[in-house]
Amino acid sequence: MLRGEGVERLGDVAVLDLDRRSRTGIPEVVLAGPKHAGEVAEIAGALLERTGSACVSRMRARHRRAVEALAADRGARLLAYGRRSCRLLASGAADPPLQGLVGLLAAGTSDLEPLAEARMVCEAAGCATTTALDVGVAGLERLFAPLGAMLAAGADALVVAAGMDGALASVVAGLAGLPVIGLPVSTGYGAGGRGRAALLSMLQGCAPGLVVVNVDNGVGAGAAAALVARRRAGGPFIG
């Protein structure tokens, strides 16, 4: 249902979408990267006060310091996801009830930050997660045990992050009878660097059930996986 309620202007800094989680199932995420540290802290603090939680992505060192200071000042719990993403939970606030399981796989250690961003969104949306790292196609034997464990645990959707050739996403989609969200990562270098080869490889993949988000879009990958997982687990699309 479309409605204009739950919108609140925060000075000249932002317009808060306070009902986003109840409307879509996915909470608002503060993109830190291009913002001043004070702006990030102000927006995150307002979300924390109004909704009991806040998600922040693409933090740099100055943003992280500001968010850590905010958490200490408010007595909030800070949950770190890699070095660049975090969630804040107000004192006494509980995580949403878990619905669905998302498996997250990273081809290499260099692909972890966008995958951590996806994990943050999944957990903020109320999905359990399980993660496997460094399971890329250069040593394909590393993939089978963790992927098998995810399937045995009843995973509802998978997110695959890869930044060189992006081949892991197609391989996983060809092995697992689940929706697979391909997350190309900008860690690749050379002629197809900055995620270009990974993106095109995933888009060109012939394995059915693979869909692809833009380069480094961990928030989008996590949101898509969470919505699918919640629905498959019997939960509603909206929170």
Condensed summary:
The protein is globular.
Describe the structure.
This protein has two domains: 83 residues, Translation Initiation Factor IF3 (2-Layer Sandwich); 132 residues, Rossmann fold (3-Layer(aba) Sandwich). Helix content is 38%, strand content 21%. The chain has a five-stranded parallel beta sheet with strand order 8-7-9-10-11, with helices on both faces. Strands 3-4-6-5 form a four-stranded mixed beta sheet. The protein has a two-stranded antiparallel sheet with strand order 1-2. Helix 2 runs parallel beside helix 3 and helix 4 packs across helix 8. The longest helix has 15 residues. It is globular and about 50 Å long. It starts with 6 loop residues before the first strand and ends in a 7-residue tail after the last helix.
Per-chain topology:
Layout: E1 7-10, E2 14-17, H1 20-24, E3 29-31, H2 37-51, E4 53-57, H3 61-74, E5 77-81, E6 85-89, E7 101-106, H4 112-124, E8 128-132, H5 141-152, E9 157-162, H6 167-175, E10 180-184, H7 196-204, E11 210-212, H8 218-232
Parallel strand pairs: 3-4, 7-8, 7-9, 9-10, 10-11
Antiparallel strand pairs: 1-2, 4-6, 5-6
Helix pairs in contact: 2-3, 4-8
